[in-house]
Amino acid sequence: MRCYIFKTASKLIILLVVFAGVIFFNGCSVSQPCVRLGSYATATLGTHFLDTNSLGRHCFGSSCFEKNGIVYTCRGGHIDIAHVRIAADNVRYIQDLADKNILRESRNFDFKLRVEPSTYYVTLEYPPNWGKLSKKDRARIADEVSMEMGPYFTYIMTTWHEVLTWFGFKTMAFVPEQPSAFSWEDLYSNIFGIKVGTLALQDKKHSYNTAMTIALEKELKKLGVQSSDTARKASEKMRGIWYEGTLIAEMKVRNLDIGIDDGFVSPMLVPGVCRSAMPEPLPVPKLSKLYRYGFKMTLEVEMNEMEKNKVLRIIYPNISPSKYPRRISPVEHLPVIMDNIKKELDKQRIGKPLHFPDI
After folding, report:
1. Which residues contact 112 (CB under 8 A, 6 or more apart)?
2. 123 within some domain
């Protein structure tokens, strides 16, 4: 009994630290996305279930008018609205950053996800005829190319965050995040947020925040968003199957579909909630226009987390840690890392890595 009470008290302390961290982080700069706290898609303490009537108004620089939590959609499964907003806002942030750097003809620029030390470095080579183009044409091409770079870099960055948390990185000290790494809703929530953020940027009739509010509700309805009560029941239905726990969740399955195999990220649907629904995979962003216009680009990440050697050991198994390179290519090395995570999951019997396009 004492052991149970101690365990429960420890979990409550962790929750209090998490909420304190949210208050601390939300002192946001309007030039960068606001940090938001994601949710488990589980019927556990602290999870807020929402529908389209309770989303609030989107805010890029502050979350004061937003409501974040978990919704359930027939074709997209559970979706973490905080993850959606984070991904969407990073699309806007990086698109603006890339556009300005291209117009300045910068050869290098970098960016970060605010909650982690990793830094992403972009190196650009411009088309041979770039200097001969008119200012108007350069502006048009910069806009088109940056509109691809925002979604693409956000996809890499949010996926990399899942990798880091899998290997033990904590956004807030002493608060474990490994239990939520690659949880069944995270990757799809990220890619859905990238889609919604891209649509909001393409909306020239409204401000970004208004466009995001409109696009989020519209796209959720397209996926068949359900009531908050249905969202909660869908989570409760998977207790003991996808997760365990009532206070803090312990994950039994993970969704590792980052689109390596077919270029699409697929959701996990709760069986029986929307009986005739089929999952709606979303495409991984590409850089087709960037290459079509004659640009060349490399993207590298420099890990500054304490856990970096755990990742580098997988990429460079035959190299001494003292000789690890400072930067790696996430595009090249993600497949290697994901394969290792899949094998580790199988070995631990946490759950079979699932794509779930057919349940």
Report:
1. 118, 119, 120
2. yes
Cα dihedral sign, 36-42-45-48: positive
In terms of residue numbers, what domain contains 181?
2-348
**Closest by CA position to 193, among listed 234, 154, 146:** 154
Residue 138 Rama label (left phi>0; alpha psi -120 to 50; beta) = alpha
Q: What is the pLDDT of residues 273-311, one digit of tens each?
A: 998 899 999 999 999 999 999 999 999 999 999 999 999
pLDDT digits (tens, 9 = 90+) for 151-185: 999 999 999 999 999 999 987 666 667 778 999 99
Dihedral angle, C-alpha 268, 270, 275, 281, nearest 10 °: -10
Is residue 73 within 8 A of residue 225, CB to CB? The reply is: yes
Please measure the distance between the N-terminal and C-terminal CA atoms of the chain and give it in whole angstroms: 40
215 vs 218: CA distance, rounded Å: 5
What is the tally of structural domains in the chain? 1
Structure token digits, residue 30: 């309007």
114, amino acid identity: R
355 lies in some domain: no
Residues 84 and 196 sit within 8 Å (Cβ to Cβ)? yes
Q: Got the DSSP string for 102-151?
A: HHTT-SEEEE--TTS--EEEEEEE--TTGGGS-HHHHHHHHHHHHHHHHH
pLDDT tens-digit profile of 67-106? 999 999 999 999 999 999 999 999 999 999 999 999 999 9
Whether the predicted model's global pTM rises above the 0.85 cut: yes
226 Cα distance to chain centroid: 22
Residue 196 covered by a domain: yes
